[in-house]
Predict the 3D structure of the following.
Amino acid sequence: MSGVLFKRVANRIPGLSIKLQQAGMSDTEVEFIRKTFFSSFYMTTGIVIALAVLFSKAESGMLFPLLIFPVLFIMMFLYFVKFPDVKILKIQREIDREIVYAGRFLIIELESGIPVYDAFKHVSENYPVIGKYFQNIVEDMDMGTTIDDALNRAVEITPSQNFRRMLWQVVNSMTTGADIATSLNAVMEQIVREQRIELNEYGRKLNPLAMFYMITAVILPSIGITMFVIFVSFLSIKLSLTSLLMIACFMGIVQFLFYTVVKSSRPASQFEE
């Protein structure tokens, strides 16, 4: 019965199978939903038990923790079910960080007269992220798969649009008989231009982010807290150590969120580091 439920939930999530492949996860759709379900259940149960202990002396007793259990469980499930998307985004950034170097390496190999198979094998040995995809291509070719089918399979499971364009160009060049190195060189130049544009846009975004950081990390913790303490002293309001610690924790959370926003908006390119 539970297997049918997990299968129905998996069928309602569009593209779950390809997402799991792109994220490098070996689980099937049903297995992933089952693991997500139980992880959400255990996490929700732990939180509800902690809330029950906190509310044990309150009038509501166990009523409030039990009422929020289904809502909290749904929130946890929706959170954990996004795990493949997070992994895909991470892999995509890692691929985009290597793609220009790997592409130029492949071009040099091909221009030196090295066969495509050997060039793919050399790329797989020198680049840890992109090299995994080229290693899969080489292994598929060793198993008797045609190079076109092996490349198309790699195109299907890669989460990076830039890497997909690179592989498509190789397939098109081999199909039409054009020079692969020349075609790849044009694609690499276009990817470099796009990465430069992303980097310039990121530089423009840093100006308002820097202003926000000055407010939340410099002004509020120093001048703002000082003015707040003076203001409450005039009103004869006593601030306990717990209140001050809560304010400090809040400021720490705000700064952590700021760091997360800046890090997530940073483009993954050869110019990043």
